[in-house]
Amino acid sequence: MNRYLSERVLTVLSFLLLVSFQLFITSPGRNLPQEWIKLSSLFYIPIILLARMSFSVLGTLMATVTSLLLSCIVFFRGNVPHCWGWLMIPPMVTLSVFISMQRFHKMRVQRKIELQHLEAECNDVSEQYAKHKAMIKSLKNKISHFSTLRCLGEKLVSTLSLDTTGQKTLEAAHQLIGKGDKARVFLLDNNLKTLIEVHQIDLTEDGKTLSIDPDDLFNPWILKNHQNLLVQDLPTDFRFKETSKKNPQLSLIASPLITENKLLGVLRMESIQSHAFQLEDLRMLATLSTIASTALKNARLYGETLELSIKDGLTGLYVPTHYHQELEKVFGQARKKGQPLSLLMADIDYFKSINDQFGHTVGDSILKKISEILRQEIHPNYLPTRYGGEEFSAFFPGWNIRQTIELCETLRKKIEQLSFEIRREILSVTISIGVSEMKPNDLSKEDLIHRTDQALYQAKRTGRNRVCLES
Fold it and tell me: I need a labelling partner for 157 at 20 to 30 A (CA). Which of 223, 360, 364, 407 fits?
């Protein structure tokens, strides 16, 4: 504002000064050359241009007209002949300069507009570049994730152990998502219709653990809905208002393990931090659960097939082929480490007579009932086996002979208490058991089996319904 005021004051003062000068040189008695008077009119040119800058277009027009009038007065006063050409010089020069300045201003404005357009286009290009860069990054992440999924899928599908498949599924979830404090795998118990935790891994370095709340509602929700679950902030999630406040996890993602529309279990990741998981994490977990479902189904089918191949169809006990394979391994380990190994062989007393008198259906019922007691009392690791028709066996690595005899007495007493009502008759059964332990001079498992069989023969010979140790 001060600059414009100064320019206007300067213009007016310059104008007045020039007029005063012209009046001075044309005053009576001043015999100055007429060329001076003519040249003085040219000084209006810078004054008009100055007026253009300080008074805009209207000021320029007024300054031009005023300069013409004053120049006419001065020329006539100084009796300057042929002055019309000189009178037109200031306005013509001013007009030329004015037109040039207008064109320059127009070009300047146009360039400014073009520059603004270019800046806008540059901004658009920058935004598009940023979007494409983010998209490329996202695609690269997805490609990386799917590549990881492919590798993990190959590992899972190639695993036929149910236990190993569950563990590898958790490791894959951690590798793929890399968030949370704990990962869990639950498998459905078809008998109880409940989800049972079979594997878990802690993902934190501080050793904090997350326990399962008895009032946990997440698994029942998945069991009911068969849908993926994302909980970002448990206290504010209306679906689980009834969940115990003792729940340590604040956010979680879970995906059902489903194959052929059948629920196998649940894959779940948890965090003690709220908003630890996003929707994209749930999508990746759901994709992994699809692969894991197939792997778990294959592992379960393989396990069931293997179970059928190594177990007797009638009694549910192991078959002799599997028994001998495992005993061979255990015998070798026991000899190498110098650990004890004991063996039992049992036989149902008078079983052939029972079959002949009451039939094989009754005999099968007795076999099933006795086998049920054997399965209850002998851990599967010790391979309770149907060794022959009515003969049974099991081996006990790490057990001394006293422990084995105590177990055999328990078996004998429980079987002795059994009773079967057949054709309105009460039938009781007993078993004879032979026991032996590995000796330093045993060269193979056959030596141990032979001595145990001799102990069983001794139990039969000395009255049956008893436990005999090798003599």
Answer: 223
pLDDT tens for each residue of 373-394: 999 999 999 999 999 899 999 9
| Structure-token match 């105590």, residue found | 406
Q: What is the pLDDT of residues 254-294, one digit of tens each?
A: 999 998 888 889 999 999 888 999 998 999 899 888 888 88
Q: At what angle do helices 279-310 and 84-157 cross, to 10 degrees?
A: 20
Identify the DSSP state of 311.
Answer: B
C-alpha–C-alpha distance, residues 462 and 454, integer Å: 12
* CA atoms within 13 A of residue 122's CA, in its CB half-sphere: 6
Concerning whether 390 is annotated as a catalytic residue, the answer is: yes
Residue 62 CB neighbours (<10 A): 13
Alpha carbon distance 156, 165 (integer Å): 6
Q: Which domains does the chain have, with CATH numbers?
A: 2-110 (no CATH), 162-309 (3.30.450.40), 311-469 (3.30.70.270)
Q: Cβ distance 179 to 166 under 8 Å? A: no
Q: What is the pTM of this model?
A: 0.56
Q: Which of 7, 72, 85, 79 is nearest to 46 (CA)?
A: 7
How large is the angle between the packed helices 84-157 and 162-177, nearest 10 degrees?
Answer: 170
Torsion of CA 104, 106, 109, 110, to 10 degrees: -110
The number of residues making up the chain comes to: 471
d(CA 148, CA 42): 87
Please report which helix (H) or strand (E) contains residue 101, including its range. Answer: helix 84-157
Residue 322 near residue 184 (C-beta atoms within 8 A): no
Distance between CA atoms of 286 and 272, rounded to whole angstroms?
21
